[in-house]
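step=encode ok
step=design start
structure_in=
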């Protein structure tokens, strides 16, 4: 099976406990390598500059076409304090070119404005199953280049699944967590995932399914949302079972956090993800909306 991913590669400087770590990443890398753990072929649509070690993608058998730019790679400074983090934009690479691809599923997860409205529209028209993490559509930089969220009128027609947190959801629709999920569902999205720190919810039809990730010490959270999204998408495509997909997504996120690793080293292998998923499957709670 094949997964197409639209997102920038990035170079992050991650600050934790006054220590700095330079890491390559972005959903392009986190999603791509997680999908390879699920034995998916990966076509990556991205842009990176001469400062990015493209051999890392090649070594992980991630396909990329027309991705090299004369501009340097998108860069962020990320400061992490527990489950909270702040971002500063250091550099912005050029936008992603659209190319049609025959894939089983698509993930659209921009980091900062690299996917135009026109490109997004074309992706939606091509996709069989599309999961969107809208974070990069919602981001704006202030005068100090710190990232803040802004309200947007985002066309979510022909989107099958979306992953948001409460802060992001408030920029697209309004209300409580339940009201956010319902409002997104009314836009035509069949699977609405809402992550609120260690609480994970999935709205399908008129029912909310929830799991709670064990409350342990959190270290580097960078990329955990990307790992979560990819595990959900790959499981949905393979198993056609949203409950298993939720549990695999939670299992992948928990395994990444448990690793206490920095950057891409936290991406878990399929065996650990599956073991966690079986654990969560017996603990899923549900309620009607």
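sequence_out=
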């Amino acid at each position: 099976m094949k997964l197409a991913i639209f997102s920038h590669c990035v170079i992050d400087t991650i600050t934790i406990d006054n220590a700095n770590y330079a890491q390559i990443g972005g959903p392009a890398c986190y999603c791509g390598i997680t999908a390879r753990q699920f034995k998916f072929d990966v076509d990556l649509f991205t842009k990176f500059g001469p400062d990015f070690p493209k051999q890392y993608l090649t070594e992980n058998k991630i396909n990329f076409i027309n991705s090299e730019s004369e501009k340097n790679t998108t860069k962020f400074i990320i400061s992490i304090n527990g489950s909270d983090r702040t971002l500063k934009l250091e550099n912005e690479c050029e936008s992603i070119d659209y190319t049609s691809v025959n894939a089983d599923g698509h993930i659209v997860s921009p980091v900062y404005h690299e996917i135009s409205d026109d490109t997004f529209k074309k992706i939606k028209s091509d996709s069989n199953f599309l999961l969107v993490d809208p974070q990069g559509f919602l981001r704006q930089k202030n005068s100090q280049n710190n990232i803040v969220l802004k309200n947007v009128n985002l066309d979510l027609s022909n989107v099958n699944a979306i992953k948001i947190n409460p802060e992001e959801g408030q920029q697209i629709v309004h209300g409580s967590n339940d009201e956010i999920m319902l409002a997104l569902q009314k836009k035509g999205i069949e699977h609405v995932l809402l992550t609120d720190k260690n609480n994970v919810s999935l709205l399908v039809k008129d029912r909310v399914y929830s799991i709670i990730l064990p409350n342990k010490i959190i270290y580097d959270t960078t990329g955990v949302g990307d790992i979560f999204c990819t595990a959900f998408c790959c499981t949905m495509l393979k198993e056609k079972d949203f409950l298993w997909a939720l549990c695999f997504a939670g299992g992948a996120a928990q395994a990444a956090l448990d690793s206490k690793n920095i950057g891409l080293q936290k991406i878990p292998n399929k065996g650990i993800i599956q073991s966690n998923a079986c654990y969560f499957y017996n603990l899923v709670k549900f309620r009607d909306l």
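step=design ok
step=annotate ok -> The radius of gyration is 17 Å.
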